[in-house]
Amino acid sequence: MRIFLILDETNPRVLGAEWLNVYSQANRSNFSYPIFATVFVWSYYVIAKLSSIQYKFSTLVVSFDFSVSTNLSAGVMANLIRLAKSGNEWSTNELMAYNIAIVERDQNTFFDGPLPAYTGPAGFVQHEDRVQGLDPSSLALIKRLDLAMKVMDGEESAVDDFAAELLRVLGYETERTVIRTRKNIRLSMCGQQMYAKTDVCILDVDSELLLLVQEDKSHISPADPEPQLIAEAIAAFQENNRNRVNNLFVDPLRSQVFPGITMVGTFPRFYKIMVTTDLDMCVRGGTYPAVQTIVDRHTPRVPRRRSDGMRPLDNRILVLRCYEGFRQFVL
User: How many domains does the chain have?
Assistant: First the structure.
């Protein structure tokens, strides 16, 4: 992690959630060594879009490369100056800045009991590849799985197409729900209007967002899909409440749990993301929540390598049963 610490002669400041407030409050035991530092002393104008104010600094700029080994104190985190970012710019720094933690859960705990049986087309769990006589649904899934397993440099993969088709086949799209891809959702953050863009989502007939899917695009971008998914959930909470108040004429929700999925190729991880009014207001105002938000996550314990995704049939069957069990949180 690279951190830029900007010290004013008279008033030390750290700009941005990704620039940690270490100048006076952090304990050096919180960091792993060695630390590589390059120090430059100079005077110049730093123009920061921070309440539309220009700051003049005589500065000491220190560039550190290190890893954080323990959590910084709540007091340190509360004093950070947070900046508005679009959902695809969110990283683990934003999760720290808004007191959000991801906790892995075992299968029975996450799905509230044993996984149900697979109910989709039989051909998809009987044949790893295309064969003559496959039913149309199995053929459509295998063709899209083949494309999703291929990574093209500089190009978004077919993972979104595969995820959308799989959700349809498994009954996530009903008379009251619709599956959409690449939907933009408004995100109010730090007093500014930003956007979070889903790869795949499910809405009901009242336009309420019910499920969010985010692909890992590490082959074209270093961004982590988990913070992006959580940003989308916060944006969806804001969007759902706007819709409730302005269009449905009902009270806004105080909290909502958003089912979410991240996809690394065809391998999914499942999430339950609780968004509350308190977290929403902190993101809107750029402040540190006093209460930590816990995001539940489950990673399917597939018998083969995760990088094989849903290609091997034994991996495929377990993952499909996870999708079956996850549907209860959406519909």
Answer: 2
Looking at the domain assignment, is residue 315 inside a domain?
A: yes
Query: Domain range holding 54?
Result: 2-81
Gap between the Cα atoms of 90 and 85, Å rounded = 7
- Chosen domain end from 48, 81, 114: 81
Q: Measured in Å, how far apart are the chain's first and last C-alpha atoms?
A: 40
The answer on 152 and 55 residing in a single domain is no
Considering the entire predicted model, what is its pTM? 0.78
Q: Which helix (H) or strand (E) holds 257?
A: strand 255-264
Residue of 268, 274, 245 lying closest to 324 (CA atoms): 268
37 and 138 both lie in a single domain? no
What whole-number distance in Å separates Cα of residue 202 and Cα of residue 327?
A: 11
Nearest of 185, 105, 166, 157 to residue 316 by alpha carbon: 166
Tell me the pLDDT band of 94, cut-offs 50, 70 and 90: very high
Q: Token pair for residue 290? A: 């006093």
Same domain, 203 and 286: yes
> Same structural domain for residues 69 and 203?
no
Q: 113-142: string of b/e by CB count within 10 Å (b at 16+)?
A: eebeebebbebbbeeeeeeeebeebbbbbb
**Residues whose CB is less than 8 angstroms from the CB of residue 245 and which lie 6 or more positions away in sequence, other chains included:** 251, 252
Q: Please write the tens of the pLDDT for every residue from 200-220.
A: 999 999 999 999 999 988 656
